[in-house]
Amino acid sequence: MSQAHQSTRQQSTIALLEALAPGEGYTLSALEGVRFMRANAPIPRIPVLYEPSIVIVCQGRKRGYLGDAVYTYDPRHYLVLSVPLPFESETEASVHEPMLAVALRIDLQVAAELVLALEGSATCADPPAGIFSTPLDEAMSDALLRLLQALQSPSDARILGPSIVRELLYRVLTGPQGGAIHASLTQHSHFGKIGKALRRIHASYDTPIDVGTLAREAGMSVPAFHSHFKAVTLTTPIQYLKTTRLHKARLLMVQDGVSAATASHLVGYESPSQFSREFKRFFGRTPANEAAEMRNALIQLPAQAPPQRMAMQ
Q: Which domain holds residue 240?
């Protein structure tokens, strides 16, 4: 493909995203599980929590940090989280060149169906990783542009959108690191068992969870579970649970406007004072100050109407 064609495709993608994500933060799309990200100014390195997802940055640049590893996602590289994972992220952006990205939640049922259809042909680095960045190829770029075009029309979004999202997931599964998603769904692998435990934590973070139960459900001894858990997340199960609760509490305060005391109760803390101490230690600000600072960055705007101003259903 000629450089001129690639440049035209990139310009078309950015123009569509500019229209679909006119405001900073997150903008929902007409498709569940697909949302847009925009930043008009740099965002310093901050703690984030991503669910299993594909993030494609079309303009600007983001970097993810987990332990000593750095993951760049920009117009040439997309990011994939094969398991829910907390890490740190920073954003390069400006008013003249805002960061524009598309985030697609990985539907685990669809992923499992594709894995079965592929019959083990997905490849993966050894061992599989919970987070990785991969070069963006022409097939992924073309599919992304078609998805953004489909989101311009309510009927196209409803009828064509899901199949294009499925295609994007297929492209990831057949890419260099696709086997990581495969492994996360495979119950007999250690990575798959830890992936199941992580999903269990995210489904039940507001209830008492003990490591012994998680290890038993994974079919491992507690020491083995600790070892494999840390290999995937670079943290302990208890610290992961605490981090998840703090992130969920921050989201409740930012999006729902609840108080710190209410958020602490909703995510499973028995002591509001303990919650406030641990929150400030983790985020570097009190719950109230952090919620105020992050409200613009994490706000989710409704789906934008297409150019014809027809309401999205």
A: 235-313
Q: Has residue 188 got a pLDDT over 80?
A: no
Is 196 found in the same domain as 160? no
Residue 104 phi, psi dihedral angles, 5° rounding: -120, 115
pTM across the whole model: 0.87
Give the span between the Cα atoms of 11 and 106, in whole angstroms. 26
The model's pLDDT over 274-287, given as tens digits with 9 standing for 90+, comes to: 999 999 999 999 99
Across 125-217, where does the E strand assignment appear? 131-135
Assess whether 210 and 241 both reside in one domain.
Answer: no
Q: Which residue has the tokens 């997340």?
A: 233
How big is the chain, counted in residues? 313
Task: Using the structure block, give the residue that is written with the tokens 């003990």.
Answer: 210
If asked whether residues 30 and 87 sit together in one domain, one would say: yes
Region of residue 67 (left: phi > 0; alpha: psi -120 to 50; beta: else): left
Longest dimension (CA), the chain: 61
Nearest to 202 by CA among 102, 74, 71, 105: 105
At residue 124 the predicted structure's pLDDT band, cuts being 50, 70 and 90, is low
